[in-house]
Write a structure and sequence with these properties.
The chain is of the alpha+beta class. It folds into 2 domains: 172 residues, tt1808, chain A; 30 residues. The strands form 3 sheets. Strands 1-4-6-7-8-9 form a 6-stranded mixed sheet. It is globular and about 75 Å long. It starts with 26 loop residues before the first helix and ends with a helix. The N terminus is likely disordered. One of its GO terms (molecular function) is endonuclease activity. Keywords: Endonuclease, Hydrolase, Nuclease. Pfam families: Uma2. This is Uma2 family endonuclease. InterPro entries: Nuclease_put_TT1808, Restrct_endonuc-II-like, Uma2.
Length: 216
């Protein structure tokens, strides 16, 4: 029997790198991310070709090293990929794909980086087509579209909403939260909101049926 002289070295699967992001600063930040994620997941429930992540690390080292070149957008979406759970987004294990859409939820301690360093990174390295930011306390809200090599500000519509070409959705502020809206202007509901709406429709239909029967 031939014994190997090489020491046993654990192999860390490249697509199983754990996220290494700090906790969100406030409950309002957390609720905003959960809101965006649950709304998009519900809207695209029948789709199998996207991944949406919140407060999740993106590893993008050209040398495929988990110890370097890592960033964690607050919310991002990758299109034309397999819809499945991931512990992080590892670019070299995902056919070199970077996010199509990124949104940062600003805070007093991160806003300068989000407006500067991260914007430059997403423009020059990630080449992410749509980049947005939103402050859940001051309601600062901006969006940028990659035009060739540079981000250009997205002009708001008459409601103050900004259009995302990548998601084919509007983003706008409603009740102090950032929400998705369809191209037709309908609010993208949370599962709970959709359930309430369906219940209200059922109650209304039942009431109308009762009125009709009384008239017979």
């Amino acid at each position: 029997m031939v014994l190997s002289s090489q020491p046993d070295t654990p192999i860390f699967p490249p697509d199983e790198l754990l996220s290494d992001e700090p906790p969100l600063e406030t409950t309002r930040h957390l609720k905003q991310l959960i809101l965006l994620l649950t709304c998009l997941e519900r809207l695209w429930n029948d789709r199998t070709n996207f991944f949406a992540g919140g407060n999740l690390s993106i590893y993008y080292s050209i040398r495929q090293r988990k110890s370097e070149d890592v960033r964690g957008p607050d919310f991002f979406v990758v299109l034309d990929t397999e819809r499945r759970d991931r512990k992080s987004w590892v670019v070299w294990a995902e056919d070199g794909k970077y996010p199509n859409f990124i949104l940062e939820v600003l805070s007093d301690s991160t806003a300068q980086v989000d407006r500067g360093l991260k914007k430059q990174l997403y423009q020059d390295v990630f080449r992410t087509p749509d980049y947005f930011w939103f402050h859940p306390y001051t309601f600062e809200f901006k969006g940028f579209k990659l035009n060739y090599r540079h981000y250009e500000a997205i002009e708001p519509n008459d409601r103050g909403w900004l259009w995302s070409d990548e998601l084919q959705l509007f983003l706008g502020i409603l009740n102090e939260q950032l929400r998705f809206f369809t191209p037709e202007g309908a609010l993208v509901l949370t599962p709970e909101e959709a359930e309430i709406q369906e219940r209200q429709r059922a109650d209304q239909a039942e009431a109308q049926a009762a009125v009709f029967l009384r008239k017979l």
